[in-house]
Every structure is written in structure tokens, then in C-alpha cells.
């Protein structure tokens, strides 16, 4: 696994945690679109 992948995973999990706190459907759809 490359360093870039690790960093991206960390940022993505951090984003998911923030989204779970706010529970905003709009931001959730944005993150899912990134996948």
C-alpha cells in the first residue's frame, strides 16, 4: 500500500466521522460521489 493511499484513507475516514456528526445528506452524497 502506497503512502498516498494511506493518507487518502485517513482523510476519508476523518470526513466520514465529520459527516456522521452533522448527518447532512448533501455532504454524504458528495463523499459518495467521490468514491
Question: What's the short story on this structure?
Answer:
The chain has 35 residues and is an all-alpha fold. It has one domain.
Mind telling me the C-alpha Rg?
A: 11 Å
Q: Residue-averaged pLDDT, rounded?
A: 76
* Estimated structural class: mainly alpha
Shape: elongated
Through-space gap between termini: 18 Å
Q: How many separate domains make up the residues?
A: 1
| Main sheet: strands, sense, barrel | none
Residue fraction in strands? under 5%
Poorly predicted regions are none
Order of helices and strands: HH
Beta-strand segment tally = 0
Helix content: over 70%
Q: Provide a count of the helices.
A: 2
Structure characterization notes:
The protein has about 35 residues and is an all-alpha fold. It has one domain (about 5-35). It is about 85% helix and about 0% strand. The relative contact order is 0.14. The model has no long low-confidence stretch (mean pLDDT about 75).
Secondary-structure topology with pairs:
Layout: H1 3-22, H2 25-34
Keywords:
86% helix, 2 helices, 35 residues, mainly alpha, elongated, single chain, 0% strand
Amino acid at each position: 500500500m502506497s503512502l498516498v493511499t494511506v493518507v487518502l484513507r485517513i482523510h476519508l475516514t476523518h470526513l466520514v466521522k465529520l459527516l456522521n456528526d452533522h448527518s447532512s445528506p448533501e455532504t454524504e452524497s458528495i463523499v459518495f460521489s467521490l468514491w
